[in-house]
Write a structure and sequence with these properties.
Blueprint lengths: L2 H12 L4 H27 L20 H10 L2 H15 L8 H12 L26 H28 L2
Helix pairs in contact: 1-2, 1-5, 1-6, 2-3, 2-5
Length: 168
């Protein structure tokens, strides 16, 4: 899935109560891609490293540095996300719900990434198993994704507005 959609799904799923919670949830929704590809993309844009040629479409995964693959494995693992969520729960003595946008990101990626380019290693480091999904860039995945986000946010804003009007 694209990074913006991940943030929007995180925000609508776990950040509906307050604006701050929305942005925290949005952040944890984009965090797996931000901490893997985002670092590499920023370094490429700043001219610190050279990147693959994207003009002909998706590059060969071997053209992406090994550290990006490692960070991708870490940030796209339900095992790692689960350990972090439990650790935060133990430290805070309560759940930090915006953090649940992270495993939501992974769950959305599992069926929307093919083995052609960065399949989702959701059981890493326990297993290299992945599901060969359908790329999120295909129109029959991308267009319903956009429509679903539009419906979810329209419903949310309509519900909130109706609630505000009923308290007047």
């Amino acid at each position: 899935m694209d990074i913006l959609s991940h943030g929007l799904y995180g925000g609508i799923a776990f950040g509906r109560s307050r604006r701050r919670q929305f942005w925290q949830s949005f952040f944890f929704g984009v965090m797996p891609d931000l901490f893997s590809f985002g670092i590499f993309t920023a370094a490429t844009v700043l001219g610190l490293v050279s990147g693959p040629d994207w003009s002909a479409g998706t590059p060969d995964p071997s053209a992406i540095p090994a550290y990006v693959h490692t960070l991708y494995n870490i940030t796209h693992s339900l095992v790692i996300a689960g350990v972090v969520i439990v650790a935060v729960r133990l430290l805070r003595r309560k759940f930090f719900f915006p953090l649940f946008a992270w495993p939501l990101h992974i769950l959305v990626d599992i069926p929307t990434h093919s083995d052609a380019f960065f399949p989702t290693p959701f059981l890493w480091p326990l297993s290299d198993f992945y599901i060969n999904g359908v790329s999120w860039g295909t129109p029959y995945i991308l267009l319903p994704n956009i429509a679903l986000l539009a419906v979810l946010y329209a419903w949310f804003y309509y519900s909130r507005r109706r609630k505000q009007l009923s308290t007047i």
